[in-house]
Structures are given as C-alpha cells and as structure tokens.
Amino acid sequence: MTADGKIATKSGSSAISSKIDLRRVHQLRKSVDAIMVGISTVLADDPQLTVRFGTAGSKSPTRVVVDSTGRIPSSSKLLKKANELDTIVATSNRVSIDNIRRIENTGAKVLVAGRNKVELRKVFRVLEKMGCKRILVEGGGELNWSVLKLGIADELTITISPRIVGGRSAITLVEGEGYDWISEGISLKLRDVRKHANGEIILFYEL
Questions:
Q1: What does pTM read for this prediction?
Q2: What is the DSSP string of 62-116?
Q3: pLDDT in tens, 31-85
C-alpha cells in the first residue's frame, strides 16, 4: 500500500510495488498452496496469479477467485489459463447456470459456497480438504476485510511504499463496513520489520 494506506488510486491504478518487492511477493507465492483474490481485483487488474519474477520453473499455486455471481470474464487471464493451471471460482447460489457452464468450459472449477454471498469459512475448509494448507489472500480491500473480520488469517504482511496518492474514493488496504470504535479493531502483533533500499518498508504481523 502507499504511505497513506491506498492499494489503488481513485482511477484504479495499482502498480505500487517495486521490482524488488515483486520478487519477494513471488517468492511468497512460490511457498503457498493457493492464492485468493476477490472479483473486484480481477475486474480491475486482470491478474495472472502465477509465480514469476526470478522463480522460473516453479509450480504456480491453485488460483481462487471469490465471485458471488460468476462475473469473471471468459477473456480474463485467469480463465484463459484455467486448462493449464488449477483455477477455482468460488460463488454463491446467486450464480446462474449459464455462468457456471461458461466458467467450467474454460477448465476452471466452480465451487458454490453460500446462499447470497460466498461463505469464506466453507471455501477455506474445501481448500484444506484439497490439500491447500497455506493460502495467500492478495485482496482487494473487501476480501481483506472479510478474512480479517472472520478471524481466519494467521499473518498479515504489508509493504508500505514511500508514496502518497490521496483520493477519498481510492481503495484502502481494508474496506468493508468497518468497526464503530477503535477498541473493537483487530489487534496485531508486530513480528518483524524489514526495509528495501528504495525506501519500502515491510511489516510482518501475527493475528
């Protein structure tokens, strides 16, 4: 995130991480069994969620998209590679049969978990049964809020970029409905602090 807590600008630009930190992130991806993002991240950034940046030849983890109604485009990079890389779209009962068929035709799996929205606890249980013991949640802000509020995250790693972008409509690290009182906030335990030569600071928290 930027020094003022944004993970994207008001226009949706989110290329915040330096090449140095991208290498760290891809080493982290290499160490996990699954990577999870929300549908807003897919629509805004069209990510691949693969292992790259100096990790050539590494097996990419299972890619998971939380998408209550199956909005993920067939043209997205995730679905275009779904025949080659394990890809799961977690949806709710609001998804249409047509969207299920469309997604499955790309080679991705559809996991219906929840009535009106995706029940993340159920998704995590299914992933665990599939052998995904270590799951990296890469946001965006709404998904980050849901995972933190449910208490199903063990660690939180934040890279702070030495840059300010402002914008009252710009997305922050954690969105959602939030708490009314500071005392209700989620407590973190700082485990480690590191610094890149370019001024980025990485904070490692335990929950």
A1: 0.94
A2: EEEEE-TT----TTSHHHHTTTTS-EEEEE-TTS-HHHHHHHHTTT-EEEE--SS
A3: 999 999 999 999 999 999 999 876 666 788 999 999 999 999 999 999 999 999 9
